[in-house]
Amino acid sequence: MPKPKYITSVSKISALSPEEREAAAKVSERYVFRTNEYYQSLIDWDDPNDPIRRLVIPDARELNEWGRLDASYEELYTKVPGLEHKYSDTALLLCNDVCGAYCRFCFRKRLFMDDNDEVVRDVSAGIAYIREHPEISNVLLTGGDPLIMSTSKLEPIIAQLREIPHVKIIRLGSKMPAFNPYRILDDPKLHAMFERYSTPEQGRIYVMCHFNHPVELTAVAREGLHCLQAHSAVTINQTPMIHGINDDPGVLSELMNELSYLGVPPYYVFQCRPTEGNESYSVSVENAYRIFAKSLERMSGLAKRARLAMSHSTGKIEILGLTDEHVLFKYHRAANPRLTGKIMMFRRNPEAHWFDDYIEAREYLPTNLVHIEPVLVAQ
Fold first, then answer.
1. CATH superfamily, with its number, for domain 74-307
2. Element (H, E) at 140
């Protein structure tokens, strides 16, 4: 198939009414818009609540005042330009500031604004940092989407990481398998790169896919996943829970089951970060848990590996369960290692959309609970 054309102006979307285009254009002045012909073809324009439309077409409610651009305070973990080091064994290399399309609920939309200086095209300082920190065994290439880069630009980064003995796992965080699977299918150089650098001897390259809804699992997307697997990549999936897209037990379980059948086991289901513009996409914490728990009942065994978690400033906080009066959390990973594994309990708060909403309530229970400030990090 010819390379799908990218669409960067809502004025080009004839399926929208003039009023809808005008409203979407105002949003795109604040938050960048981009999609492509392939992904647009998945939208049922007769359905105003179509999940793919909701995923990429600007919504006027994005201009509601809510949240902050860096909701997880990633800036606190930036060690050199383009590199974050939050967990001792894992580094994030922000190697690109472009995506195949832009999710409206993106938690890094700040990176796509004109005044962004967090992403660098020259990753040499980040590579040097990783080389100098032997505790780092796991590197995640992200941004932006590393798979929108040409293989000729991506492969040198992979090659440099493979020269570092203590880097055992390389991960590529990418929605290209959903946004444009032809990027994977039509590039023999990409196939060769995976075969060269994802081996039992060197360590594997994991493609952290971002399928958010079963509609994205088209025949060609499935072919793209098989292509990655056939060329030695390991495929995993993670998705946020997003209102109007997958906040339904039937939809979420179908997504997880289909992915597990395809050899793409689920990793995290994330609580939508309280990022600026994301109010209409966010599901409350306690409702998210109820939806997740119901979906687990319908999932196959491998699909049940998913964890519902928040990428909080202090670490990945798993949402463990609810009682009649309380909500339970656990530090699945923590920036401060002494917090890892700690279980916390708070009074129920149906309006809470983030961990900070419980902290601010100051409703701590006695005994051995951990008292966490919202930004107790990087000291």
1. Aldolase class I (3.20.20.70)
2. strand 138-143
